[in-house]
Automatic annotation (TrEMBL):
GO MF term list: RNA binding
Stored Pfam families: THUMP
Residue ranges of domain THUMP in the record: 84-188
Ranges of biased composition (kind: Basic and acidic residues): 205-224
InterPro entries: THUMP_dom (IPR004114), THUMPD1-like (IPR040183)
Biased composition (Low complexity): 8-17
A GO BP annotation: tRNA modification
Protein name listed in UniProt: THUMP domain-containing protein
Region of interest: Disordered: 1-29, 204-224
Organism of derivation: Aphanomyces astaci (Crayfish plague agent)
SMART domains the record matches: THUMP
Length: 224
């Protein structure tokens, strides 16, 4: 499915709560996902060029970039971009903040996200043990879905032979939700690339100078 390979190119975070319309007839998650993708493709029809297409995510400051060439690996493309950024400390756009690879799209329900993520999780965790991992969930205009429910479901798929590590995981399960569409990916360089944040690499925040131990002793004496 060509719609599965996308990059979340984020200029800024702008989260809000979307109201559900209970008066609409019940549809399956697959129907809702296809409707959302069809709408995105229709809006972006005039912007299709070459191997990529920019899709309107419906969220301010966020663009989904669809890979039209099925032979292209979205994770390898993003890896190459960030490798060059780290090597040269240069980036061609000053407006892009994050570039997040998404391997597959699904409807944002716990059941659909679990089914979507399972093959990618198994690729990294099957027949291994002791892999340290985390689950990163980001939601924008996403209604009432609970992040912790998604995290727990992914942890159950990974299994108890592996360990959660929130500070320095080897593998990160990425779940990005935009209104009625969810993107899923499993990556190994999430923290190496500063959560895929270009600006954090080019313009890292200044570290606060550590206080000298003697200065701390003098402060305690003055307080005494």
């Amino acid at each position: 499915m060509k719609d599965d390979k996308v990059v979340d190119a984020s200029a800024a975070d702008n989260a809000a709560t979307a109201d559900d319309d209970e008066s609409k007839p019940t549809k399956t998650s697959a129907d809702l996902l296809q409707e959302e993708i069809a709408g995105l493709k229709k809006d972006a029809k005039d912007r299709k060029t070459g191997r990529f297409s920019a899709l309107d995510s419906g969220v301010k400051g966020i663009i989904l970039v669809q890979f039209l060439d099925e032979s292209m690996d979205v994770k390898k493309v993003i890896d190459h971009i960030f490798e060059q950024v780290q090597k040269t400390m240069e980036f061609s756009s000053r407006f892009i903040q994050r570039m997040i690879p998404l391997e597959k799209l699904c409807y944002p329900s716990v059941e659909d996200i679990t089914a979507c993520a399972t093959p990618f999780i198994e690729r990294h965790f099957k027949d291994t043990s002791g892999v340290q991992f985390s689950v990163e969930v980001r939601k924008r205009n996403s209604g009432n879905i609970v992040s912790m429910d998604i995290i727990n479901a992914c942890v159950d798929v990974v299994g108890n032979q592996h360990k959660v590590n929130l500070t320095a995981p080897h593998v990160v399960i990425v779940v990005e939700i935009f209104k009625n569409v969810c993107g899923v990916s499993v990556v190994t360089n999430f923290h190496q690339y500063k959560k895929f944040n270009v600006r954090m690499i080019l313009d890292p925040p200044a570290k606060e100078p550590k206080k000298d131990q003697d200065d701390n002793k003098d402060e305690h004496k003055q307080q005494a």
